[in-house]
């Protein structure tokens, strides 16, 4: 029976040493994990393999002395990459390495069917399983390891096996691109949210002015984290522009600094903000999301996310007659194709004209 020993690292985090010992023939093997569950899973599987070798009259041999595993390739990819790896990608790769059997397979044994089995395992997780869109992200992040391992380190991972698995998973519906959301708030929903947020601020002036942030998000089309990064130095009132730092851009980790236009009444909203700190909206983006979600729940507003305000703002500009290039000047999209759906508007004009809340936030 394997033993699992808990150890405390220098940084205070825990690690778990799984150790397997056999007396006849004498054999010992161990491996360290970040989670006890991962250590137990590896030990159980590895003990069965070792006992099978002994039953056949063979002396067990450590797999690590013969073959490098996918887990080894993942670790090296994360450790040695000089390009920035996003937090989500790093966490996904760590989860694969620590919690899934495919990580313990030797690189030269992994075929497309094993990768497909891994994706199916994602759908059977105890937490309810991952959606096809999330499974696609997992597979995409793992494919980066497959495309790098052989040419860079000589690890025998088959990049074609990954491509074949991606094709199969897509055709079978195991992975899929996320559906485009088209949820837009009604004016009544926005009125209720604005009233709720304003009353909260009036009751406690130190409370985050969510009614102001909500209005700015709609009219500027900015994401919540972008709003929280804008500094007074980034603001150019004479040109009605701001510099959006680290704007999300496909294929560009860390984002790109992008100058965008500020439609009315964004400049008036900014000018009404106190100049007490470097940032115009010195708030936490996670708190904005949480406060918005909580308010929707209290008010009985279903299936509305803070990010939907960006969609609403872009749709508003399209309904006012803006062309795709003019939309991109505000949203910051580099690829105009993603903005084409906004050209098929069902109405024209500005539904926010004479909106009573504009005066309240400017």
In short:
It is built from 15 helices and 6 strands.
Category by helix and strand content: mainly alpha
Give the helix proportion (percent range).
40-55%
- Adjacency order of strands in the biggest sheet: 1-2-3
Low-confidence stretches: none
Question: Radius of gyration from the CA trace?
Answer: 26 Å
Q: What is the 3D shape?
A: elongated
N→C terminal distance? 70 Å
What is the N-to-C order of secondary-structure elements (H for helix, E for strand)? EEEHHHHHHHHHHEEEHHHHH
The profile of the biggest β sheet is: 3 strands, antiparallel
Number of beta-strand segments = 6
Number of helices: 15
Strand coverage percent: 5-15%
Mean pLDDT across the residues is: 89
Question: What features would you describe in this structure?
Answer:
The structure is a single chain. It contains 15 helices and 6 strands. By secondary structure, it is mostly helical. A hairpin with a 4-residue loop joins strand 2 and strand 3 (27-33). The mean pLDDT is 89.
List keywords for this structure.
elongated, mainly alpha, three-stranded antiparallel beta sheet, 362 residues, 6 strands
Question: Secondary-structure blueprint of this entry?
Answer:
Blueprint: E1 3-8, E2 14-22, E3 27-33, H1 36-55, H2 63-66, H3 70-80, H4 87-99, H5 112-123, H6 132-153, H7 159-171, H8 187-203, H9 210-220, H10 224-229, E4 235-236, E5 241-249, E6 252-261, H11 266-271, H12 285-299, H13 308-319, H14 324-331, H15 356-361
Antiparallel strand pairs: 1-2, 2-3, 4-5, 5-6
Helix pairs in contact: 3-4, 4-6, 5-7, 6-7, 8-9, 8-12, 9-13, 13-14
């Amino acid at each position: 029976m394997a033993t699992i020993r808990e150890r405390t690292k220098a940084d205070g985090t825990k690690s778990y040493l799984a150790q397997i010992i056999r007396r006849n023939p004498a054999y010992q093997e161990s491996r360290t994990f970040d989670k006890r569950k991962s250590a137990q899973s590896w030990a159980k599987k590895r003990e069965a393999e070792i006992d099978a070798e002994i039953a056949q009259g063979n002396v067990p041999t450590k797999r690590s002395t013969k073959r490098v595993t996918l887990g080894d390739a993942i670790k090296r990819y994360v450790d040695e990459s000089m390009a920035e790896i996003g937090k989500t990608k790093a966490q996904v790769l760590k989860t694969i390495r620590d919690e899934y059997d495919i990580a313990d397979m030797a690189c030269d044994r992994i075929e497309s069917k094993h990768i497909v089995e891994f994706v199916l395992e994602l759908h059977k997780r105890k937490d309810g399983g991952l959606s096809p869109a999330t499974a696609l992200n997992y597979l995409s992040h793992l494919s980066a390891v497959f495309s790098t391992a052989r040419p860079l380190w000589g690890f025998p991972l088959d990049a074609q096996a990954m491509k074949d698995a991606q094709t199969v998973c897509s055709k079978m519906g195991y992975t899929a691109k996320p559906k485009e959301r088209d949820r837009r708030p009604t004016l009544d929903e926005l009125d209720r949210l604005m009233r709720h947020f304003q009353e909260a601020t009036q009751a406690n002036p130190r409370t985050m002015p969510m009614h102001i942030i909500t209005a700015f998000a709609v009219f500027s089309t900015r994401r919540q984290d972008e709003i929280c990064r804008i500094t007074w130095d980034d603001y150019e009132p004479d040109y009605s522009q701001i510099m959006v730092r680290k704007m999300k851009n496909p294929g560009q980790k860390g984002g790109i600094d992008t100058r965008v236009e500020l439609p009315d009444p964004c400049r008036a909203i900014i000018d009404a903000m106190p100049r007490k700190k470097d940032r115009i909206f010195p708030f936490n983006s996670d708190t904005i999301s949480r406060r918005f979600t909580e308010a929707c729940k209290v008010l009985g507003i279903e299936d509305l996310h803070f990010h939907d305000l960006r969609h609403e703002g872009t749709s508003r500009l399209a309904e006012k007659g803006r062309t795709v290039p003019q939309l991109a000047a505000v949203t910051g999209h580099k690829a105009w194709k993603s903005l084409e759906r906004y050209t098929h508007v069902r109405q024209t004009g500005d539904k926010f004209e004479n909106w009573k809340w504009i005066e309240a936030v400017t």
